[in-house]
Amino acid sequence: MTIEHKSVLAAESIQYLGVAKEKKGVWVDATAGFGGHSRRILENMSDEAVLLSIDRDLRAIEKAEERLSEFSGVKFIHSEFSGIDRILRENGIKEILGIIYDFGVSSLHLESPARGFSFLFDAPLDMRMDEGAEFTAYDVVNGYNRADLERVVRDYGEEWQYERIVSAIMKHRPVKTTGKLAEIVAAAKKGREKIHPATKVFQGIRIEVNDELGEIKKSLKGVLPYLAANARICAISFHSLEDRIVKEFFRENAEKKGGVLRILTKKPVVPGKDEVRFNPRSRSAKLRAAEKVEQAV
Fold it and tell me: 244 CB contacts (<8 Å, ≥6 apart)?
């Protein structure tokens, strides 16, 4: 299967990141994916600058390496971005010029049937972004008690019919495949929706399996001390849970509250009509950016 991934808000993110030929130092793409944002950075940065391109998915790293083979100023790192502090220390980096995040699931995940991210394919319940990890969606669906499973569906899936859904899942255990899970959820829910009935449930389970929200919190906190003066953080979110974490982190560390960040986006930047038409998956994307304030000596 040929998988095509379109980077969301590509031009806007590079603009807010502040990549420029005259800036010499280290840039970070915390979510390499297929290398779309990394390519934009490499094309616009100084020949004397370096890019660290990070991803927890080894397949994504391999694909990005292949697609960006013409560039020499990039180092690919297989790791969760929550380990940004360790990554920078291990590479002898004391400060960076900027970092970009593109949260959530990618085309590589959704369109790879065997990885179990999508309800459109019948596959084993997996959903691991890092295939080397042991914990899977099967463990959540079949191993969690009622309270924990309800928490996942309610809080991470933002699904109001969580009680009915969890009761149905528990009644049909063991649930082994994505197709069966989607079938159970669809049968349990009342009413009609514009989206597939299992969309929110799959989102919640995926977030739990990969500790996606915890990863964001750890990485933002870990990278803050490494930002050079005027360095920037850009974050692209795809649902309210991710966006809320970024928004609150920027506010908590804003210069108005005695922090070190100047918020550049009073409201999140969203894709235009043309981008949404070209790439429907971009419709829920929100970009926020902040800049490290230069401290007086």
Answer: none
Written as six digits, the tokens of 265 are 């986006």
Most distant CA atoms of the chain, gap in Å: 64
Q: Where are the alpha helices (DSSP H) in 155-236?
A: 162-171, 178-188, 199-210, 212-223
Rounded-to-integer distance, Cα 202 and Cα 156, Å: 10
**Structure tokens belonging to residue 178:** 């994505």
Instruction: Give the phi and the psi of residue 60 in degrees, each rounded to 5.
Output: -65, -45
Burial 160-180 (b: 16+ CB within 10 A, else e): ebbebbbebbbebeebeebbb
Domains of the chain are 10-102+212-292 (3.40.50.150), 114-210 (1.10.150.170)
d(CA 226, CA 222): 8
Phi, psi of 144, rounded to the nearest 5 degrees: -75, 145
What is the tens place of the pLDDT at every residue in 153-188?
A: 999 999 999 999 999 999 999 999 999 999 999 999
Question: Would you place residue 296 in the very low, low, confident or very high pLDDT band (cuts 50, 70, 90)?
Answer: very low
Q: Exposed (0-12), middle (13-18) or buried (19+): which is 225, by Cβ within 10 Å?
A: exposed
Question: Could you give the strand order of the β-sheet that contains 261-263, starting from the edge strand earlier in sequence?
Answer: 74-78, 50-55, 26-29, 96-102, 227-237, 286-292, 261-263
What pTM was estimated for this model as a whole? 0.93
DSSP state of 127: -
